[in-house]
Amino acid sequence: MSLQGLNLYWTKHQVAIVDDVTLSVQPGETLGLLGPNGAGKSSLLHLLAGLRRPDSGQVLLDDTPLRRLSRRQIARQLALLEQHATTDSDLSVEEVVQLGRTPHRGALRPWQPEDTRLILHALERVGLTELRRRRWHTLSGGERQRVQLARALAQQPRVLLLDEPTNHLDIQHQLDLLALVRHLAITSVVALHDLNLAAMFCDRLIVLHRGRMVAEGTPEMVLTPTLIREVYGVATRVTPSPDHGRLQVHYLPGSLPP
Ligand SMILES: Nc1ncnc2c1ncn2[C@@H]1O[C@H](COP(=O)(O)OP(=O)(O)OP(=O)(O)O)[C@@H](O)[C@H]1O
Fold it and tell me: Could you tell me the pTM of the whole model?
């Protein structure tokens, strides 16, 4: 399923938070969303998820405008992994993941063995099978993050939006999570702060700066020292990795503490 945002514009208190952003994500593609703190990444993801209405512009899922779909119809096709996802602390891990099936259930469609299979598969994919009976409030930050990803996977979305999903994760789980997202046959948009992870795992990148899209293209097109200096104010050297061929960003003296 493709996802498009056309001329999206969202203001708050007369300030343009998302300022005329147009983007298109092809079926199965992983698009990285970069930009400094406050650039508008979360706000843009909320517009794309239909949680906020743009002041102007529109979001299309395939060719259907999001505003024509009900919340339930959207949730059957699109999942958002929020930056600070929380949940009722009395639930077990398995019960949190079960919530992902809610959009697919109804009076005429009670819980089925297929739902249980999807829950167990989602837990396995994020490596949390062993913890499935644990209470949510006893989990570490990284474990909670992975439970929320399992919940999103159980939702069987065709579009997955992730807001800084590697927060709280140790390096192995950061790599595992992004490899998983990249290999899913799901259209994905992932907001990231780590430029090297973005270069390793994203097909294409867009960069937001003060609400505007200032760059768009492959990692090779986007991650230039000039762009990084202009947007982040940091001096870098960017080279292909001798180990995996993807770009690597080196932060140079002068941008580092003495
Ligand atoms: N509801 C709101 N009311 C007022 N200002 C808001 C609101 N939501 C976001 N903003 C402002 O919009 C700007 C963009 O915020 P947003 O959270 O989208 O940025 P971000 O790129 O996700 O940042 P970060 O990397 O720090 O998570 C920030 O300056 C923020 O303070």
Answer: 0.94
